[in-house]
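Entry 14. Structure prediction run on the chain below.
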Amino acid sequence: MASNNKPSLPQGTRDFGPATVRKRNFIFNTIRTVFELYGYQPLETPAMEQLETLMGKYGEEGDKLIFKILNNGLGDPKNIEKAKKAFDKALEGKNDKDLTERALRYDLTIPFARYVAMNHGQLTFPFKRYQMQPVWRADRPQKGRYREFYQCDADVVGSHSLLNEVELASIYQAAFEKLGVPVEIRVNNRKILAALAEVCGGIDKMVDITVAIDKLDKIGLEKVKTELSERGLNDTQITTIEKYLHITGSNTEKLQTLQSLIASSETGQKGIEELEYLLNYTSASVPSHSQPQRSLQSAPPLEGRLIVDLTLARGLNYYTGTIFEVKALGVQMGSIGGGGRYDDLTGLFGVPNIPGVGVSFGVDRIYDVMEELNAFPENVHTGTKVLFFHLGEAESKAAFGLMQQLRAKGIPAELYHETAKFDKQFKYADKKEIPFIVILGSKELEEGTCTVKDLRKGEQQTMPQSALLQYGF
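Output returned:
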């Protein structure tokens, strides 16, 4: 019996057809190549985690966006009363283990920290890993914002060295250069934001300040000031924050102005030093990764792409040092990458003093940017290269043998699935953008030949079947 229900997708999710998947794989493979180039190893973790693993790690805004999974058996008569009480607690904003104990992962960083905490005795430190998997957020879907999306992360744990930050900035530069996406890599330091909180009355104000500042791009300065006031900051403190947000100029000028604003904070001076280390280390020219033939002197300096952005807050509570955000140039899109240092993330799981730093690539947004910039290479669509026409039982059997030999040579090939008119088989090749067809009819079968047609050039030639394997497809 036919159903009246029309098939649909959950809001904020998408299907990906063959052409889209090929483009996405191009992005994944490009980023993976760069990760491997820098010595990072692959890792995968489950789609769902224990709820207690995730809750309380992303700030109050992030915690609201975690997709919780209902426990099995809630409809069992024995569990009805427990379930009702648990639902009542949920309506009050409280979690109850009788209702939910698991959740879909919100990002890849916390699951990675959990993995390190569980396996630290077997790992070789510094441990460098990359991870490419989907994450889920109960966000309001809009352009560039989805409820299910892929992240590609690279993290190194077990090292305090700021050289790791330098390398991660270089990974961003290398990957986006290979992808053909012009970017700015924006940097700040959470120690500077902690110093701002100290100057404004105490470190306990830091979460209030960073959560508000993190919304600056979305809601504007006046609404940020209103939110700061609602969070209990007085006019003098808000004026100090406004001065901070108005700091402009070159990277050097910004840091010089900042020095005087947070001069009383030792933490703030440390944050400035860490930013200066990153900027000074990357101010020398670095080789282009996409054009290795270019000389070291002519290659673009990474420093030119690093911009100190004091409004950058990244509203995740676990960051403690340098923070990154990547913006694509020439398109209207939010950040396409971000990350930072977290000096005690595994301490959340009872394994203290394992420092770490990492960055993330937002593949779905990168895809949208590359589509808008027309940055995908032409050969990214390459699928089947050769279509053998189906011209009868004996002919197709011979064609199948030749096709298998081409496949053994690594040439993607197909045999049309049934005998059909030439026009129908040509249309199939055209719609699938197959560049070559091979015709092996009764005449060719008798003569031991075949006809190869290049559909892009409109040229064809007849050759011995044995010569087909040497043809330059």
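The mean pLDDT is 88.
Filed with the rest of this week's runs.
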